[in-house]
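Regression test attached.
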Amino acid sequence: MNGVHDMGGMHGMGAIAVDKNEPVFHAAWEGRAYGLTRAMGGWRLWNLDATRFQRELIAPVDYFRMSYYERWIAALRELMLKNQLVTRTELSSGRPDEGAALRTPVFTADKVPGLVTKGVPARRDVAVPASYRIRQRVRARNINPVGHTRLPRYARGKVGTVDRDHGVFVFPDTNAQFLGEKPQHVYSVRFDARELWGEQASRRDSVYVDIWDDHLEPA
Amino acid sequence: LDVDRNRKSLFRRAPKPESLVTIRRRFTDSTAELRYLVLPQRPSGSDGWSEEKLATLVTRDAMIGVARIATSSQGDRA
């Protein structure tokens, strides 16, 4: 969706605040937000791309006001409500509703180190033909889907060159809507900075964007 | 700074005074599930240093490619 999360090229956001010696978590609650999100993901009722889309659905005024992990918690609440893992009364009371069924999580403490260090790979070991080859000129499609997409707005309709083929990965656009993983090649596509930003940009600069096969067309 | 093997030519030329070096900036937007680290250029004056001692020079900014690393005698040239 063309939301405020897709900020590439936007002005007026102020200087980037550089956090020297930035800690992993700024406060204990951020670690809990991370832990809760990973633990609830263990129910396998949604996936990474659906989680990202849920964060994109936060209303713009709230999105800008919230910190990074506040967005995580806001999205997790919605996902848990949608999937009947919690009710609105439970969220406000902090206790199980009377007669709520007890469910035993499949994601247990012994699985934490593996999940945190290895993550959940999105690479797929399947043979899928690549539609484009290295050095081929390609155009990023001009798409404006209302659902989730990883194709940034600033690249749409722009012409670049395939720099490398990263291999086969899950396609977030369909996966976020539970329409299948549709594994396909992801390429690093090089764009001249001037193709994206016009004459204000340096002739020498370039931007590399990771783009899925379905988001490209021959140029 | 450019560390891609295919584009070494930029650094293969004879060394130039710092002010005359042509800088090409490569911006990598990590829009997929791939994350990038930059292997920092080894600073001059670090010959014979152990791996452990070299590791103490590496900074976050050097590993995201927005700063060079320097031995402490050279100061921070970022």
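Expected vs. actual: identical. Strands of chain B lie at 26-29.
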